[in-house]
Every structure is written in C-alpha cells, then in structure tokens.
Amino acid sequence: MSSAPVTILRAFLDVQKSRPRPQRRIRGKHSARIRLFTLETGSCEGCAMEMMALKGSAFPLEGSGFQFVHHPEDADWLLVTGSVTRSSASALAAAWDAMPAGRSLIAVGDCAYNGGRWGANYATLGGIHALSRVYKTIPGCPPSPSAILQALGDLVEESSTGSHASSASRRRRQ
Prior knowledge:
Structural class: alpha/beta
CATH class: Alpha Beta
CATH topology: Rossmann fold
Strand content: 15-25%
Largest sheet: 5 strands, parallel
Number of domains: 1
Number of strands: 7
Radius of gyration: 18 Å
Distance between the termini: 59 Å
CATH architecture: 3-Layer(aba) Sandwich
C-alpha cells in the first residue's frame, strides 16, 4: 500500500499523461499570445462554467497561444457568455470601451449570440448580435471547452488570412 503523497503524485502523473496536447500552435504574425477577457452577461451560467473549465489544466489553452486576463484593458478579444440583461449592458459597454484598438467580440453560446431561450424581453436585451458586430460565434448550449478552444483557433486562422486582424498582431507591428 502506497503512502498518501505517493498516491497523489501517481494520480497527478496519470492526469498529465492523458491531458490533451495542443493540436496547433499560433505561429507567424500571431506568435504573441492572444489575451482573452470573459464577461458573463446573464442567464444560466452554463457557458461561463465551460469557460472556467477551459481555464483549468485539462485543456491546453496557453499551449495553443491564448491567455486569460483579469482586466479588459489587457485583452485582445472579449468573450461574452449569456444573454445581455438590462443590468449587465453597462458592464458590457464599459468592458468593450476599455479594450485597446483592434479588439474582437466573440459570442460564446447560443444565449450570447441571439438570446437563446430567453430572447429579448422585459429583463434582457437578447444576444449581442443585435447590439454590436460579432466577429465569431461559438454555438452550443453550452459549447464544450474543446469546442471553444477549436473555435478560437479557427478565428486565429481566419485572422492570418486577412479577414480579421487581431490586436496581438497589431502589437507586434508597433
């Protein structure tokens, strides 16, 4: 029988062996990490929980070239989850205004894009597509962390072909 510290160490090593590896790494003009700021604007919190899971060690987020930040002033992309409630609209506008030029708005989940099952009503304004230009939509109710990571990688590839230039690439040019 193993002692507790040895058992914990073996469990940690087993997790590390089965951890997914990044399928692609941002290279070329996007070699700077793309900084992500998340904002939950209302609803069931399902998408926000999946975003929290993406921040954990089970997914190769930083190895794929992304980094979560705590302040919108430091972010390149704003990831919004939940339908926009009337009380969260000012927080969404403040986060968007605080971000540097070259920012991108990404709707994570059905509620963020079109209001989902809540839609527009007395308490919500619906999804952000009616309020602003959305650069990418990650569908699902909620989308899995791997689907979110895949969609972020797809957006980077779209950016590198010239359809959307990220502020990470603009920072490198300055």
